[in-house]
Amino acid sequence: MFLFQRKPTDPVTAETALPGRAEAIPTADTHFVLDRPLTRDVPPGMEVVIFGMGCFWGVERLFWQIEGVYLTMVGYAAGCTPNPTYNEVCSGMTHHNEVVRVVYDPLVVSFEALLKVFWEGHDPTQGMRQGNDVGTQYRSGIYYTTDAQKAAALASRDAFQPHLTAAGRDEISTEILPAPEFYFAEDYHQQYLAKNPGGYCGLGGTGVTCPIGTGVSSGSGAA
After folding, report:
1. pLDDT > 70: what percent of the chain?
2. pLDDT band of 220, cuts 50, 70, 90
3. Which of 33, 59, 144, 170 lies in disulfide reach of 53, CB 3.0 to 4.6 Å?
4. Which residues are in the Peptide methionine sulphoxide reductase MsrA domain (predicted)?
5. Which residues are designated catalytic?
């Protein structure tokens, strides 16, 4: 998002990462678009998944617009530094990814439909970058919270790869892992593109259609 902050893409380790802090950094109290408390609490019947697709500003906007998505929030995950700041993540010394935590109603929107938005909303073949945004924080990732999500994510990856290959694209580099601890990003990052409609975000897909996702859940995606 900010060119001058891009760093090398070599991952750091727990021993070499920035130390972070014990306290969470301040963030917004309320979702600017959905007008709900911005909290880790999950209402009964809802499910959670975390996506990394590059610049989290544009990723969050993709998901808050979907019917059945109850709440979105941007933050940092899958790294080594506790409670990092944005500047620390951009330094390349935390190994955190810029992510969006999505809370959704599986009776309204299927997990497969969310996966379709994920695969088509960015280029999952670029490794530690998205377009001109370069760094470990821009890597592609699906961080699942149920075994059913894991199975669906792996199946969708395998279904999508032949279509990417036919279009001349490389192998998918998306990491598919159990959801790690999620750290909220700062207040100004939450729903950034709703607060700043002209804001830059280099998010872009491949133009290749992913052959999964039906929209309304049949209940098969619920744990």
Report:
1. 91
2. very low
3. 59
4. 49-201
5. 55
List the beta bridge partners of residue 144. Answer: 178
Reported pTM? 0.92
Q: Quote the tokens at residue 135.
A: 């760094």
One-letter amino acid for residue 60 of the chain: E
Say if CB 161 and CB 171 are below 8 A apart.
yes
Residue with tokens 């935390």: 94
Selection from 98, 74, 141, 119 nearest residue 6 by Cα = 98
The residue behind tokens 């014990």 is 22
Pairing of strands 47-53, 97-104: antiparallel
CA 76 to CA 155: how far, in whole Å?
Answer: 26
From 103, 125, 150, select the one nearest 54 (Cα to Cα).
125
Q: Return the amino acid letter for 185.
A: A
**Alpha helix ranges (H) inside the chain:** 56-64, 86-90, 111-121, 147-166, 192-195
Whether 9 and 134 have beta carbons less than 8 Å apart is answered as: yes
Helix (H), strand (E), coil (C) string for 130-166: ECCEECHHHCEEEEECCHHHHHHHHHHHHHHHHHHHH
With b for 16 or more beta-carbon neighbours within 10 A and e for fewer, the 107-120 pattern comes to eebbbbbbbbbbbb
- Domains in the chain (CATH in brackets) are 43-195 (3.30.1060.10)
Residues 12, 80 contacting (CB under 8 angstroms): yes
| Distance, CA of 86 to CA of 83 (rounded, Å) | 10
